[in-house]
Structures are given as C-alpha cells and as structure tokens.
Amino acid sequence: xxxxxxxxxxxxxxxxxxxxxxxxxxxxxxxxxxxxxxxxxxxxxxxxxxxxxxxxxxxxxxxxxxxxxxxxxxxxxxxxxxxxxxxxxxxxxxxxxxxxxxxxxxxxxxxxxxxxxxxxxxxxxxxxxxxxxxxxxxxxxxxxxxxxxxxxxxxxxxxxxxxxxxxxxxxxxxxxxxxxxxxxxxxxxxxxxxxxxxxxxxxxxxxxxxxxxxxxxxxxxxxxxxxxxxxxxxxxxxxxxxxxxxxxxxxxxxxxxxxxxxxxxxxxxxxxxxxxxxxxxxxxxxxxxxxxxxxxxxxxxxxxxxxxxxxxxxxxxxxxxxxxxxxxxxxxxxxxxxxxxxxxxxxxxxxxxxxxxxx
Length: 359
Ligand code: ASP
Known about the structure:
- It is built from 10 helices and 13 strands.
- It has 359 residues and is α+β, with helices and mostly antiparallel strands.
- The protein has a single domain, classed as Glutamine Phosphoribosylpyrophosphate, subunit 1, domain 1 (4-Layer Sandwich).
- The site of aspartic acid (ASP) has 16 residues, from β8.
C-alpha cells in the first residue's frame, strides 16, 4: 500500500469519523473506552506530559492569538524549562554523574517538515529555543555538546549555572551511595547480579516535557525538552533530541512524543512508529499501547521484573490531525500517570492508559 494512498484513506476516514461524532454531539468520545476525543477537524488542541498543565494553557492561548503552533508549544515548555522546582528539565534539571547539567531538546514543525535538535547542551536553560534556531538558522538538524553551546552563544544566549541548590543536593545524595546504583554495567560474561537488575524507577529519575500542538488550520508541531536521565554518564544522549524517537510530526497524520526511559525509545523509534500507526487508522491510544507492547517485546531481561514487566517508566503522547489525542504509559504505580490537555473546553489533566496496572 503506498503511503499516499494510506494517508488519503486515513484523512478521509478521520474526517468521516469526526463528522459523524460532530453530528452526534461535538466533543463526544470516539469510543467509550478511549480517552481521546474527536472534534470537528482542526479545532485547536495542545497536549503535553503531566508536568505541562501551564505549558498547554500558554500554548493554547498563543495559538488562539494566531501564533505558529511550534512557537506556541516552545513558549509553553519554556515555563517548565525556567522552573527551578521542576528537576527534570532546563534550569534546576538533575545533572549527570559528574554533577553537570546536560540538556537535550528537539522541535519539529509540521507544515515545513523541518526539525532541529540539541544534545548534551550545558549552561543554557532553554535548549528548546536553541533547537528551534538549529532548525531555522543552520543546514543541520542536530548539534551536540561544545558545538551546540558555541552556536547558542553566537545567537546571544547567556551561559549560566543550571544547578540549583536542590538539584545539587539530590545529586550529592545519589553520589554518596552510588556504589549501589549507577549506569555502568559489568561485562556480559559476568553473572547478572542484583545490582544490574536494579529498579530503574527507584534508582534514577526520568523527567521531560513533551508538548504537541494543533492549530485551527490543521497544522501540527511538537517539542520535547529534558535534562535526561538523572546521574547519567557524561555525554549520554536520550531519545528527546532524536527525531523519530522522542518526537515526530507528520503534518498529514499527527504527532507523537514520549517521556521515560530514552534508551527504550531509541531502540524502537517509538514516536515515528506511533505516527505511522495512526496513519494506518489506529486511534492515538491504540497506537501508544501497541508501541508499548513492542517495547516490552524488545526489552532485555535485565530490565524486566519477575512477571516480565519492564522496571522502567515510559509514557507516550499522541495527537492526531483531526484533534483526537491520547496517552499510554507502561505501568501505573501508586500514582496515576496523567497528561495535560488544553482545548476549547479548558485545561485539564487526563489519565494515561496503563499497559500494566498496579504493583
Ligand atoms: N526520555 C528522557 C531521556 O531518556 C528522560 C525522561 O523522559 O524522563 O533522556
């Protein structure tokens, strides 16, 4: 089946579904068990990871003022990047194992199908803004480390110390007991120890903001920004700056992004795969759930518990061109995993659907 055919097929199916839903009652749930809502094509909607309520609110307001969906989404996540109390992103983000904050981010603009990314960027609190400039002002897609910093400084970004007292204390606490838990692994020839089967959710903190935006013209964009896995090896790059893994947008189909263990996404091209599954007719939640199953299938034993469930967290977010959206997460722990939504009905936290429930 050619991609053109499948896209045309998807778009007419989606419009048909949306029109049908609108005839019943605008905003009615597409399927009773699906948290996505299908609206008339192209009413604006912004979604984000659970830490993005303020971000989606801001991005939605800006889209209402006619701001490009990518610029709106970036302005939204800048709130979180600037927040010293969010230890997962930008200023105050948790550092690598040497105590140095290294940030990753990507942006993707649906209408032009252009993207920009930075990885292992130090000393600049808004990597998403630098990623946008990589997209607009270079012939490249990804800049890393020292080169990314020099590029940011060339564009007038100020260097600053991104480690807050709180994030330094968290790092110090980890460092003082790090013989128990770090990201170094023994050679495969050595027997698996308890150490290497550690519970990643307890040992390390993931945290990121992914934000996906759709405007009333039906144009999509997305951004993912993070300080990455806490206490990672210096130079470690996760999925967030990698187009197709931590973020992907196809303006004819939809957008997807993720938070959680980046290595799992890098090995499964998760965001690209979710968008392609939506292109073949799956709802956002179905596509996110199916991708979680693929990740589980490909997960090495070291990272599985005795019931065969991954010991790491992973959450996907998807927004389809017709405004349907959804999220799915690997495991709901004691706290339900939520994602943020802003649309004509206001701003709300919605549950991500868990692949595995409870403990
Ligand atoms: N996905 C990010 C990474 O692996 C971390 C996160 O989302 O928490 O770098």
